[in-house]
Amino acid sequence: MTGTMSKSTVRSAEAMTARPAGEYILIPAYNEASKIAEVIDGLAAMGFVNVVVVDDGSVDDTARVAHEAGAIVLRHPINCGVGAATATGFAYLREIDAAAVATFDADGQHDPDNLPALFAPIYENGVDVVVGSRMFNPEGMPLFRRLAQRAATFSTFLLFGQWSTDTQSGLKAFSRRALSTIQIRTNRFEVCSEIIAEIRRRKLTMSEVPIKVIYTSYSMSKGQGLTVGIRTLARLVIDRILR
Amino acid sequence: MHPIQWIILAFAVVVELLVIAGLQRGRVSAKGLVFWTLVWTLVAVVAIWPDITYLVADLVGITRGADLVLYLGLMVTFFILFRNAVRMEKIERDLAALVRILALKGAKEPADRDKDNRSPA
Lengths: 243, 121
Fold this sequence. Notes:
The complex is a heterodimer of chains A (243) and B (121).
Chain A: H1 7-12, E1 23-29, H2 36-45, E2 51-56, H3 62-68, E3 72-76, H4 82-95, E4 100-103, H5 115-125, E5 129-133, H6 143-160, E6 172-175, H7 176-181, H8 191-201, E7 206-210, H9 217-221, H10 226-242
Parallel strand pairs in A: 1-2, 1-4, 2-3, 5-7
Antiparallel strand pairs in A: 4-6, 5-6
Helix pairs in contact in A: 6-8, 6-10
Chain B: H1 3-24, H2 30-48, H3 51-60, H4 65-105
Helix pairs in contact in B: 1-2, 3-4
């Protein structure tokens, strides 16, 4: 943790409750040195102190900053993509027998306030995967993002037969069963659709909860553009053929 | 024979020689040698006797032999592109698996928190 408490830490301190043992937050990160400490700090303020950061070959100080902020850090020596980083995090969490995990973006677009509701269906109803969906309340979501999200959702359904209102959401929670069952093979952004496909393939249960995403110029600059979207779709088709 | 036929024939011979050299240096597999030899022999045969393409084109309902060659060439090119994309994907996945092993070996626990403090329940 950083030495001094930030404003958000102070604001949320009262809301902080002890979280269940073995619950982890997984953050794949690439060149996020300027933001990662703030993100980890915000999580800690909400009681989420078990944070695993997978630094995906950053050329800046992401790994060092995350480590000093109190996270467990795994480092890819080269950049492999968000899917590969998520798979590395899953492998580590399986090794330490984590009870539940939520994936969380490193660019500050996710609000830690959404996490208790995200984990709740796992603990209360025994659900395997909970998707944090932006589509229940898409207000503030840029039009391009909304259209791209719809296209991705439709493509995922066509290719893999599993419906979710927000396949591309980076905020998802997984039970121990899901963590041990889901096999991530894709390396890049197609991981979001692959996870949805795995839910169907492994006969896991899924539910969705509404989340609110914070769109800033910084988080927008880190998003997927049209070219990345087309490449992602091409890779998903290859993945579908390879299976 | 027209000059273009000589050029295509010479090109096929040169590429085949490069494939054979690749085999000797271990850069081309025996399976690859057979595949590329068949391809370039076919190219050479068509260059010497272009009328063959008219016969085959007529059989599959294409009027001109040159069109048949073009269509086949495009199909083969797309197949090779697709095969390369699949191979590239596999190489990337293998590389990520290797990187994962290194990352798991080097996992670093937090700098200033002991284990007891990390499980608030």
